[in-house]
Amino acid sequence: MTSGPARTSGAAYDSLSKSAANYVPLTPLSFLRRTAAVFPERLSVIHGPRRFTWGETYRRCCQLASALQKHGVGQGDTVAVVAPNVPALYEAHFGVAMLGAVLNAVNIRMDARMIAHFLTHGQAKVVMVDREFLGVTESALAHASEADRSFRPFVVVIDDATADITWPPNEPSYCIRRYTEYEELLGRGDPNFRWEWPTDEWAAISLNYTSGTTSNPKGVVYHHRGAHLNAISNALVWSMPQHPIYLWTLPLFHCNGWCFPWTVALLAGTNVCLRKVTAANVYSAIAQHGVTHLSGAPTVLGMLVNAPPQEKRPLPHPVAIITAGAAPPPTILTRIEDAGFKVTHVYGLTESYGPAVVCAWKPEWDSLPATEQARLKSRQGVPYPALEGLDVLDPKTLNPVRADGETIGEVMLRGNVVMKGYLKNEAATTEAFEGGWFHTGDLGVKHEDGYVELKDRSKDIIISGGENISSIQVEGILFQHPAILEAAVVAKPHPKWLETPVAFVTLREGSERCSEAEILQWCRENMPRFMCPSRVVFKPLPKTATGKVQKYVLREEAKRMPDAIESKL
């Protein structure tokens, strides 16, 4: 009898261990290093009249790391940046990480007290601030020093020529001469600085505070591994080619620009910085620089399609646009694609490095009517390649709900692109990760084809007369009214029905004569009676810097309204 090959035991496999030859921690710093070596002469950054190549960007990032190290920044230290989409903030996404330090890109629309909270909570060792935001940052530093006399970060001013105000100002609250200007700081650094690769891919790379749709922002911590993987996933789900030209309509401070600073470096693309996001500026940048890709909340889509004719320009080629945030209304999706933009819909949270779910498009859907395509595209979809788990679960039992497109549960995620946790908040981290899933707080359904569709935030669902009302569904119908530009629906306490919907709307230009009675009558004709708003309020909607409507503000306003006389049913 001939004996077969010897069976390999598990122990034999286990004896093969990691070494410097076969294991290197993942980090998005590898994208910059490779691109600078392979494509050093390609344009990396366009900002007004300024141009940088990838070779120059790499050297500038090394200079930043070197200069920060001379000021005592090292492993685990926080460097905060208060700036719009300017080259210095892009460079900080690499230069800070080269030291093993942690980047905190601060929301520039926050007030001084909130910025002070971010700076002290993250214990920023260095604060880099664009000159336009020096006033609010000085106030924040004053608030911070009142709370902690030992808090004295090194301050660097980014003297960007596109800012609306000059630097230094005439009457600074501090002695401005003690500040260092950003280019001066770089001049102190070594362009050949030998930075250290992270020894652990689980090491923190950035700190992002939740966006402010709730009143209690938390510090979300990302690691090198997640940033690396989500940057690659961005390229895959968008089918991005080599050398894209990416327009920065999305704030770099929001989830680190959804990881696209690292994606653009991976693909040796060109970053077109945009300080102020207006329809005119976007259309102009597309025409001038040949922009191929941009990202933004549905409000950006609405801004582009509703821009006055004098601000629009014909697109020289189809432009790919990723949208995330609130579910985009199908009407907006139809109009934006008619204008020549090709939309990809993604979903995620600050806690998932930005987008981690995508409405992956299937070729067979191309033959469907435009309205049906828009309906399908408004769904959130399926996992990113780097997300290991996505499901809609019963929040109490953690059992999956039926895939029938109707049964509501909580959307939950798990995998390498879920945050490390909340900084200095163990209780909130434990609660968020209960049962081995990240609890998003978003309510949704799962369709038969596995695609997830949001129905509401758990705190935004409206329970009226025993019926669950999706505010997103009501908003989607309101968007179909020709006079309505924007809409947000929240719950108002009601003595009989428990809660009743209230609609806050912004009207299109030229539709100012549209009345509350007209909108209410239209609602009765286009949605079930129990879903109809009891009131319609005309006003600009309060939003975060990333375009999300701050519904908690609207809920407080709705509470103070008198009850509607008319019965709901």
Automatic annotation (TrEMBL):
Which intervals hold domain AMP-binding enzyme C-terminal? 474-548
Entries under SUPFAM superfamilies matching the protein: Acetyl-CoA synthetase-like
Cite a single GO MF annotation.
ligase activity
Q: Which UniProt keywords apply?
A: Fatty acid metabolism, Ligase, Lipid metabolism
Pfam families associated with the record? AMP-binding (PF00501), AMP-binding_C (PF13193)
Q: Which Gene3D superfamilies match?
A: 3.30.300.30, N-terminal domain of ligase-like
UniProt cross-references to NCBIfam families, sorted A to Z: PRK08162.1
Q: Which family does it belong to?
A: Belongs to the ATP-dependent AMP-binding enzyme family.
Q: What is this protein called?
A: AMP-dependent synthetase and ligase family protein
The species this protein belongs to is Klebsormidium nitens
